[in-house]
Design a protein that fits this description.
It is a single chain. 48% of the residues are buried. Strand 5, helix 7 and strand 6 form a beta-alpha-beta unit. With 595 residues, the protein is α/β, with parallel strands linked by helices. The longest helix is centred in the N-terminal third of the chain and has 26 residues. It has 3 domains: 140 residues, Glucose Oxidase, domain 1 (3-Layer(bba) Sandwich); 113 residues, PtsI, HPr-binding domain (Enzyme I, Chain A, domain 2, Orthogonal Bundle), CATH 1.10.274.10; 320 residues, TIM Barrel. It has an 8-stranded mixed sheet with strand order 1-8-7-3-4-5-6-2. Strands 15-14-13-12-11-10-9-16 form an 8-stranded parallel sheet. It is built from 21 helices and 16 strands. Bound molecules: phosphoenolpyruvate (PEP) and magnesium ion. The site of phosphoenolpyruvate (PEP) has 11 residues, from strand 10 and helix 16. The site of magnesium ion (MG) has 5 residues, from helix 16.
Length: 595
């Protein structure tokens, strides 16, 4: 675990600092800083055989390469800061980078692996201890600074060697704001909104899974904030404004008063929206729109029900595989799915098969990803399920058993061809026969099987996929990423991640038409379904079902209740006829202002 500079209420009386980042999860959090930094990583200690020294040194070199990459990313991020701060941080990062190329730390660690036959992480730790002991003994301020650099670089190396990630945040002072270089989706899933007020990180993009997880937990969050960590002291008051994308460190009195007022007005807005809970989601011209929820885990079921969601439009099953070193058994998966199906009390639940890969990693399946040259294009999602049959069959068995408790649909991620859908249908038939032979109760009709349309090939090929899929779910998060070749989780290219790009809109329109022609349902479950900016356009393009984080449902209901379908369709036609992304954005925003 690497959380060292912990909270201490009150904090120093430093000058107020404002930093800008990406607003990824709405709300305003004010609280003491809990800084997650590269310190105190638990170091595994073991001996290695003489024959293993070359491989162990190789591991050290791989961790060095990963560390250099991380530092380079932070350097690019630093360019977003004002000149003086950018220069200072760049100098520091350059110093860290040079430690990683053949310095005493590295040479010493290599020697310890070869001579003392110890594992790489221990070799690095022992070398850090030795260097800092010598530097400290010299009682020189410059060397003390270098010793700190060595410690920080060493901790980064050890973290990369042990793949130790942040964990649980179980010891944080209630109401704290988590501040870190980066937070994985798996670690975000461990955040308890009862204890944590919000978070901000240096890295991360608006549509990555860390951002999605923050929205689903209702935690205000700002990602991609350059220069965040150097200005912080533990326990200092921090404001995270997830509406505007601002982080204020050590706010002065006037700023605090202003943000407390904004916090209260946001809470009032939420209260006003809550009045729409039992109102039917109809457009002005009377069309009933399906509003569904995307769930990240069973703990959100109660919220979904209270909101009156029509169904669970997307249950991401990755939660079953995160934060553990082994794979969940069929029974364990069944228990969790049953909780959701029974909890929805007769409302359908769309269960998506495992979609790990990219930024969503599962340790127990790590062997499939560590070597992938490009994980976003690698053996992930349905490709992995079809390769690892026990993985798929176990999941299908759990889903089928849960389907006995209420209506269930099965959704397949990253589909590119009809053959993948047929293969799953066949596997489901075999698993169902096996279960029935064992006397397990299953529904008479097996669950419908749907395809995520989230790869350009699937959208272009939608008419053929519609022949063998029972429904479509448009995953615009990945569709935008793969169409524009812009990583959804990378803050460096975040401004170019554009769901309104004409190529994306054509793919959306084509998929909606294909579903309509084939007479199968289609919903949108990417993040734009929960963003009121896109509601009119999606309805205008013919979408009638939207699935989103529970926290967005009422604002989308409010938006669609002010819309007229026929006018939205006319406007969508104008938008589709446009080729210029800037013009499209203006058309969409204009329309949103008047309707
Ligand atoms: C999507 O890609 O739009 C989607 C809903 O799936 P995920 O965000 O889980 O990749
Ligand atoms: Mg996706």
């Amino acid at each position: 675990m690497r959380s060292e500079r912990h909270t201490k209420e009150g904090g120093a009386s430093a000058a107020e600092t404002r930093l800008e980042g990406l607003a990824v999860s709405p709300g305003i959090a004010i609280g003491p800083a809990y800084i997650v930094e590269a310190g105190a990583v638990p170091v595994p200690e073991y001996s290695i055989l003489a024959a293993e020294t070359v491989a162990e040194q190789e591991r050290l070199h791989t961790a060095m390469a990963a560390s250099v990459k991380q530092i380079d990313k932070l350097k690019v991020k630093a360019q977003g800061l004002p000149d003086a701060a950018a220069e200072e941080l760049t100098l520091l990062l350059d110093a860290h980078r040079s430690i990683l190329s053949g310095s005493r730390l590295i040479r010493g660690a290599e020697r310890r692996i070869a001579v003392d036959k110890v594992n790489a992480a221990l070799a690095v730790q022992q070398e850090i201890n030795e260097i800092t002991r010598q530097f400290t003994a010299m009682d020189d301020a410059y060397l003390a600074g270098r010793a700190q650099d060595v410690r920080e670089v060493g901790a980064r190396l050890i973290r990369n060697l042990t793949e130790e990630k942040f964990r649980a945040f179980s010891d944080v002072t209630p109401g704290s704001i988590i501040l870190a270089e980066d937070i994985t989706p798996a670690d975000t899933a461990l955040m308890d909104p009862e204890r944590i007020a919000g978070f901000a990180t240096v890295l991360g993009g608006p549509q990555g899974h860390t951002a999605i997880m923050a929205r689903s937990l209702g935690l205000p969050a700002v990602l991609g904030v350059p220069g965040l960590l150097p200005v912080l002291e533990p326990g200092q008051t921090v404001i995270v404004d997830g509406l505007e994308g601002t982080v204020v460190v050590a706010p002065d009195k006037a700023t605090l008063t202003k943000y407390r007022a904004r916090q209260a007005s946001h809470a009032d807005d939420r209260k006003r929206l809550a009045k729409l809970t039992n109102v039917a989601p109809r457009t002005r011209d009377g069309a009933l729109i399906g509003l569904h929820v995307n769930l990240e885990s069973p703990r959100e079921v109660e919220a979904a029900r209270q909101l009156g969601a029509d169904s669970v439009g997307l249950l991401r099953t990755e939660f079953l595989f995160m934060n553990r070193a082994d794979l969940p058994s069929e029974d364990e998966q069944f228990e969790a799915l049953a909780q959701v199906v029974a909890g929805m009390d007769g409302q359908p639940v769309t269960i998506r098969t495992l979609d790990v890969g990219g930024d969503k990693l599962a340790s127990a399946l790590g062997r499939y990803f560590t070597e992938a040259p490009n994980p976003a294009l690698g053996l992930r999602a349905i490709r992995l399920s079809l390769r690892d049959k026990p993985l798929l069959n176990t999941q299908l068995a759990a889903i089928l058993r849960a389907a006995a408790l209420g209506p269930v649909r099965v959704l397949l991620p990253m589909i590119t061809g009809a053959g993948q859908i047929r293969a799953v249908r066949k596997a489901m038939g075999v698993v169902a026969r096996r279960l029935r032979n064992k006397g397990v109760t299953l529904p008479d009709a097996l669950p419908p099987i749907g395809a995520m349309i989230e790869i350009p090939a699937a959208a272009l090929h939608a008419p053929a996929l519609a022949d063998c899929a029972d429904f479509f779910a448009l995953g615009t998060n990945d569709l935008v990423m793969y169409t524009l070749a812009i990583d959804r989780g990378d803050d460096q290219v975040a401004p170019m991640y554009d769901p309104l790009h004409p190529a994306v809109l054509k793919l959306v329109a084509h998929s909606v038409d294909a579903a309509e022609q084939a007479g199968i349902p289609i919903s949108v479950c990417g993040e734009i379904a929960g963003d009121p900016r896109f509601t009119a356009l999606l309805l205008g393009l013919g979408v009638r079902d939207l699935s989103m984080s529970p926290g967005s449902l009422l604002s989308i209901k409010q938006r669609l209740m002010g819309l007229d379908l026929a006018t939205a369709a006319d406007r969508a036609k104008l938008v589709l006829a446009q080729h210029d992304p800037g013009r499209i954005a203006a058309l969409v925003d204009d329309f949103n202002e008047i309707a």
